[in-house]
Amino acid sequence: MKIELIDSRNELDALAGRWDELANSDPRDGFFRTSGWYLSWLDLVRSDAKPFVVVARDEQGTVIGLAPLCRMTHRDHWLPMTAISIGGREVVSGDYLDYLAEPELRAQVLPAILEFLWKARSDWGLLVLGEIFEDGDLHAVVQSFCEREGLSVRRQEERLCPYIELPATFDEYMAVSFNQKRRKEIKRQTRVIVEDFGAVVDVYVGPEQVSANLETLMQLHTGRWTSANQTGNMGRPGFAEFIRKVCSEPPAGSIPRLYVMNHEQKPVAALLVFQSGQSAFAYSIGRDPNCAISHLSPGYALLVWSIRDSIDQGLRYYDFLRGDERHKTHLTKAARKTLTLMIGRSASANAYLRALDLKDAFKNRFPEWWDRLVTSRDQRLQGGEAHETATAKVAKREPARETENVESDAAV
């Protein structure tokens, strides 16, 4: 096996085809690991990051594994460190990230990539593995490697990602997921919205249709968060351009679907879903909190509508992505867990990780005082007394669904 490094953006396009084959060899979770997701993020969101893609080849020169990494400056409280991180995570909330390999060769490829990274450790001070599966083989390999090398590993950002394993029919999903009373409530809610209030749901499929109507989602999303004096994802640097790109040129093997609910000829809720392999990923939702049917939770109704549609499409999984907000747990009790690992190599990185551990200990020891401190900080930030640039957010703690893909709010 030969391991090589690609650190030029110009060389990555030639690798895209094989990259996507490896990503989509996982028919359930490959979407966020594709070259299209990584490159759109790199070009539009993190243009300051540099490719650091580690490639494994067999004796014939065939690519059998790949780590979609990037090299960036990590800054937290103005402490700069050179970090190597999985790309496609920050701002755009990529989930289920991983190093890629032929399924039957993962046990050989993953340790080889880590060995290469260790030999190239002069290029980085901090190694970040964000949004990987807690029970995945990459986590296990990293733990084993760090124990062998005597490296400390910090785990953080442990998140639940609710999902539905879709049955053959929507009626079966309703029967196994809800009691009789709740089934009646959901059916009544849909009937009232559509029949009594005359709401109409339009479904746009594919790059052309979704791109032509994407502004509806963006306006609803922005308006909802503006009404709460927050920016939401659409206000984060590069995100709007990114979402336009992945809808107009979807990552390999995926197709976008946009659900829009209209009432009195005006859009009141919109939901963007990416279908890829066996899965539907509920990525972004927006709603009008001041519409005449807001009390009927049109966003929640749109989620139910898209679940039914995913079943009709023959998909196996409906994934709500990270965050265990109430509107998700109302629709499923199943969830998987992801986390972020941080490994320090340099003295400054190790000191930084120790400081984070001390902060956690303090936060757990004095939770009420800590909450007051965070609230005071947030108020200052909202008041314009401080500003954090996109660069300063590098590899920091990704927010947990307040401004993530499907927002949490009482009525959705």
The count of β-strands is 15
Instruction: Give the topology string: H per helix, E per strand.
Output: EHHHEEEEEEHEHEHHEHHEEEHEHEHH
* Average of per-residue pLDDT values: 88
State the domain count.
2
Residue share in β-strands = 25-35%
Tally of DSSP helical segments: 13
Superfamily (CATH H level) name of the largest domain:
Gcn5-related N-acetyltransferase (GNAT)
Helices and strands: which structural class? alpha+beta
Largest beta sheet: what is the strand line-up? 2-5-6-8-15-9-14-13-12-11-10
Question: Remind me, CATH topology of the largest domain?
Answer: Aminopeptidase
Low-confidence stretches: 384-412
Which descriptor suits the 3D outline? globular
Characterize the biggest β-sheet. 11 strands, mixed
Nearest-angstrom radius of gyration? 22 Å
- In whole angstroms, how far apart are the ends? 50 Å
CATH class division of the largest domain: Alpha Beta
